[in-house]
C-alpha cells in the first residue's frame, strides 16, 4: 500500500483553460523537456500509483497497451475514467513543489474574489464585481471591499476580448472603480486604487455576526466561510480554533437559527469539514456517524482488516461549542462554486437536521483525493488522485454529477453592487430571513442597484484563478469507529 503525501493546507490552481471555457476541465501543466527514457520511468511510476490507489483502477487500460514514452500528461489522461462526467478532478503536474504550495494556501495575490458580468446591452464591456476581499490582503489594505466594481485596469476598460490580458499582466495594477447610476453602470475615473500582490495565507473565517430579533424570538448566527483549512504551517489549527470561537460567541448569545454562507467555498480538508459539522449538528457527538468513505476494493479490504468493519465510518467530534441543541435546521447559502467539503457538510448534516439551501445548484463533487510525489525524488512530477467517494450516515451520496445539489430555494445572486455581509437586504441572506419570518428593515437608506448578466458564472480569484474543487484526505491513517 502506498504512502500519501501529507499536506498542511489546501490551495487552488490557476488554470487558464478553466476560465476560457467557463467550466472545469482536465489540468494541462506546463511541461519541461524530458527524454523518452525518463518519460518511461515517470509513466511507470504514474501507472503504479493509479493501479494501486485510483478509485476506478479496474477501468484503466492494461499497462502493456500504452505507449510509455509519451509525455506523462498525455499518458495520465489515458488512465482517467470518464473525464467529462465522472472524474473531473484527478490531475498531474510537472512541478509538485508549486502544486504543494498551492495546496498549502500560500500564494502571491491581490486578495480579491469577483464575478465577471456585462455592464452594457451590447455585451461588450465587463465589470469585475467584488464578492469579497481577503482579510489582511493588499486589496483590503488598499481600501477595496465587497460591493466595489472594477471597470478598468491600468486605464483600459474591461471587455469580453481583453479581460484575460488585463488581469494577467502585472503584479501591480491600478483599478478604476465603477458606480451604479439609475440602472446604468459606468466607470468613475476619479476613483482609482493601485494594488501590488503579496504572498499571504487566506483566513477562511471571513465574516460572522449575530442578528438579534427579540420581537420574533429569533437570534440568528451568520457565518461566511471561504475554504476548509485547519491552519497554517506556523499554527496548524489556528483557523479551526477561530471557527470554534465564532460558535462560542453564537452559543453565548443564544443563537437559535444559523445561516452558513458557503457560496464562495470550493472545499478543502475533510478534517475542517468535520470540525464545522460538529459545531452545528443536532446531537452531534463522537458516537454518531458524520460520513462514510468508499475506496477501491483493495483499500476497503486493507482498512477493514487493519481497523475493523467500521473503519471507514467517520464520526462527529465532541465540540464544546456545538449549538445543535438550539437548532432544528440550518440554512446554507450556495452557488455553483460550492463544492467538495462544502457539499460533504451539507450532506453529512441531513440525517440529523433540516438543511435548507438557498442560491444556485452546487458543483457536484462527492469524491476525495490525495497528493502524491515520488518518494525517491527522481523527478518533480506529482499527482492529485481521486481515491474514493463519501456518503452520509444514511448512505446517501447522490450529488456527484454536474448538476450537484438542487437548492431548496433557487435565488440568483445578480443584484449589484453586492451588499455588505450581514446586511439584511443582501440577496441570499434576505431570502433566509424571509423563510425564518423576519421582515425586511424599513428604515434603511435605499442605494441604487441593478441586475447584471453573468459573463462567467463562477467566482474568480485574483487574475482569473478559478478555485479548484478539492476534498482532501490528509493521511491514510484512519481512526477506529466502533
UniProtKB/TrEMBL annotation:
<dbReference type="GO" id="GO:0004175">
    <property type="term" value="F:endopeptidase activity"/>
</dbReference>
<dbReference type="InterPro" id="IPR041489">
    <property type="entry name" value="PDZ_6"/>
</dbReference>
<dbReference type="InterPro" id="IPR041613">
    <property type="entry name" value="Pept_S41_N"/>
</dbReference>
<dbReference type="GO" id="GO:0008236">
    <property type="term" value="F:serine-type peptidase activity"/>
</dbReference>
<dbReference type="GO" id="GO:0030288">
    <property type="term" value="C:outer membrane-bounded periplasmic space"/>
</dbReference>
<dbReference type="Pfam" id="PF18294">
    <property type="entry name" value="Pept_S41_N"/>
</dbReference>
<dbReference type="InterPro" id="IPR036034">
    <property type="entry name" value="PDZ_sf"/>
</dbReference>
<dbReference type="GO" id="GO:0007165">
    <property type="term" value="P:signal transduction"/>
</dbReference>
<dbReference type="InterPro" id="IPR005151">
    <property type="entry name" value="Tail-specific_protease"/>
</dbReference>
<protein>
    <submittedName>
        <fullName>PDZ domain-containing protein</fullName>
    </submittedName>
</protein>
<dbReference type="GO" id="GO:0006508">
    <property type="term" value="P:proteolysis"/>
</dbReference>
<dbReference type="InterPro" id="IPR001478">
    <property type="entry name" value="PDZ"/>
</dbReference>
<dbReference type="InterPro" id="IPR029045">
    <property type="entry name" value="ClpP/crotonase-like_dom_sf"/>
</dbReference>
<dbReference type="Pfam" id="PF17820">
    <property type="entry name" value="PDZ_6"/>
</dbReference>
<feature type="domain" description="PDZ">
    <location>
        <begin position="107"/>
        <end position="158"/>
    </location>
</feature>
<dbReference type="Pfam" id="PF03572">
    <property type="entry name" value="Peptidase_S41"/>
</dbReference>
